[in-house]
Task: inverse folding
């Protein structure tokens, strides 16, 4: 539960870090922190990939590098090279490995299933190759997919040239892609089963119960604003979902890859995906904590109403104002649960990654202010 | 302490971002250093206000409790609010102020729940005061780099 809650956060998404995201080639290559563990992992990866591709020989893995990929799962990029039919081939891949002692089996399978279901559709995602539950290969369960290299994901970088001139284009694609996700029937995607079914009138309750449970479990200090928001949400439930959709669960700026021409190439981070009300995803993306440019542009890209209009057109669905308001406020509760959970994880767990501290300190007050605004109490 | 802590932390954060990070690899560790720099910036901004905002907030909540206790119909809650309204922040250590703040904000939640269920002008006035205090609490905690 905690792991699901802290899954969404990445360090390089803060404006303060904007200038850090330079091209890799500009960095001096000291590689001083490389160690035997990384070399051993390269060897194990080569053995595993060789076992999965019996037609290849001389398998070698190199250039293994850990990258930011959320706090719940270790993410690495690497190059695999091999011989196939007498030809030398190379491919760049991503490893998403559970930390030792992780209990997030469901999330790993959910994420893998979502990538697999959407690959090749009008929702761009990287190809995933192998899901492995057996910890004997790499020490813990993992999955491997293709790397989409050469693109940017950082909202901080998005605010700077050459990306800043493409915000309109990026915003139109972003909410159109979300509309495409919302429009699809999860049964046709084969995701009913890998993801738990929910009845249209139960979507709101299931999600609110879950995230209130996270807050109840992890709250370190009293949180009067989120508690008031939860009471309001329970007093004013939304109408049943107009359809059951795949909900990405973390669809926001920072979780898609884009290029210097403003084209989106991949939607990432499906680990909180589930079935539910499509307005849930729309509300999450509109959350004020993603207003990276410190203005009214949602996700740092487009005004709220414009984003909603694009989503409506692409999805063919309604965005009932009262229902959407409920889901926007709910998403503030969900966000606060994630930030609370991050603080709790750092204080009580073995994971002392600074990402958990930043994820708590930085957005928590903004999240409170967003709730106050939606409840009409921020003057 | 001189040089002033907030100035030192801001300078250290700047150095980490501009000089240290470009000199290290891999990018994962650059991200870690970047997060530490972000935390230093947060602490630098929080440093000067860290005690005053808690004292101000505790005073404000106690004032609400003073006004609310005659309106509260639950005897236990009314008694608790009255007692808390009479407490003072005599120990100005941050840990002590934080403990007081947590005690007061926990009681504020209970008062908020109770007052929402009450009818009448007096209850609405207390509820309005609670919302104003909650809005003010986010102003006290606000970072200049915050998204909202």
Result:
């Amino acid at each position: 539960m905690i792991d699901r809650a802290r899954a969404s956060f990445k360090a390089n998404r803060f404006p303060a870090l904007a200038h850090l995201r330079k091209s890799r080639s500009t960095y001096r290559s000291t590689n001083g922190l490389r160690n035997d563990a990384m070399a051993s992992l390269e060897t194990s990866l080569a053995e595993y990939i060789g076992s999965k591709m019996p037609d290849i020989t001389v398998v070698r893995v190199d250039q293994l590098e850990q990258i930011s990929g959320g706090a719940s799962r270790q993410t690495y990029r690497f190059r695999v090279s091999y011989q196939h039919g007498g030809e030398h081939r190379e491919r760049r891949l991503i490893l998403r490995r559970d930390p030792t002692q992780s209990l997030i089996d469901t999330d790993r399978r959910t994420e893998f299933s979502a990538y697999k279901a959407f690959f090749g559709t009008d929702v761009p995602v990287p190809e995933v190759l192998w899901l492995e539950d057996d910890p004997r290969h790499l020490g813990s369960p993992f999955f491997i997919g293709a790397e989409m290299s050469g693109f940017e994901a950082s909202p901080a970088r998005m605010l700077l040239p050459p990306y800043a001139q493409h915000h309109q284009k990026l915003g139109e694609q972003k909410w159109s892609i979300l509309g495409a996700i919302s429009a699809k029937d999860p049964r046709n995607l084969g995701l009913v089963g890998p993801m738990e079914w929910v009845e249209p009138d139960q979507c709101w309750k299931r999600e609110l119960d879950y995230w209130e449970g996270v807050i109840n479990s992890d709250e370190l200090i009293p949180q009067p604003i989120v508690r008031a928001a939860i009471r309001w949400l329970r007093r004013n439930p939304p109408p049943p979902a107009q359809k059951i959709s795949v909900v990405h669960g973390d669809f926001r700026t920072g979780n898609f890859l884009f290029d210097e021409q403003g084209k989106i190439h991949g939607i990432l981070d499906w680990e909180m995906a589930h079935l539910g009300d499509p307005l849930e995803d729309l509300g999450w993306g509109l959350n004020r904590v993603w207003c990276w440019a410190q203005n009214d542009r949602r996700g740092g890209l487009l005004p709220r109403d414009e984003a909603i209009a694009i989503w409506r057109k692409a999805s063919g669905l309604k965005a009932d104002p009262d229902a959407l308001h409920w889901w926007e406020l709910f998403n503030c509760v969900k966000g606060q649960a994630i930030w609370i959970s991050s603080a709790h994880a750092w204080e009580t767990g073995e994971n002392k990654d600074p990402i958990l501290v930043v994820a708590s300190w930085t957005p928590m007050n903004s999240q409170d202010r967003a709730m106050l605004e939606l409840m009409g109490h921020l003057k | 302490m001189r040089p002033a802590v907030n100035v030192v932390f801001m300078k250290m954060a700047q150095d980490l971002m501009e000089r240290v990070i470009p000199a290290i690899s891999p990018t994962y560790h650059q991200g870690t250093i970047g997060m530490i720099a972000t935390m230093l910036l947060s602490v630098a901004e929080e440093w000067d206000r860290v005690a005053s905002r808690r004292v101000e907030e505790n005073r404000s909540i106690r004032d609400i409790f003073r006004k609310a206790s005659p309106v509260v119909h639950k005897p236990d809650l009314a008694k608790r609010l009255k007692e808390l309204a009479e407490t003072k922040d005599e120990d100005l250590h941050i840990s002590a102020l934080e403990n007081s703040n947590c005690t007061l904000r926990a009681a504020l939640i209970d008062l908020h729940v109770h007052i929402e269920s009450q009818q009448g002008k007096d209850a609405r006035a207390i509820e309005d005061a609670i919302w104003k205090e909650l809005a003010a609490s986010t102003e006290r905690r606000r970072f200049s780099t915050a998204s909202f």
User: Anything to note?
Assistant: Residues 5-47 of chain B form one domain. The helical segments of chain B are 5-20, 27-47, 52-68, 75-85, 94-116, 121-141. DSSP finds six helices and no strands in chain B. Chain B touches chain A through 45 residues (CB under 8 Å).
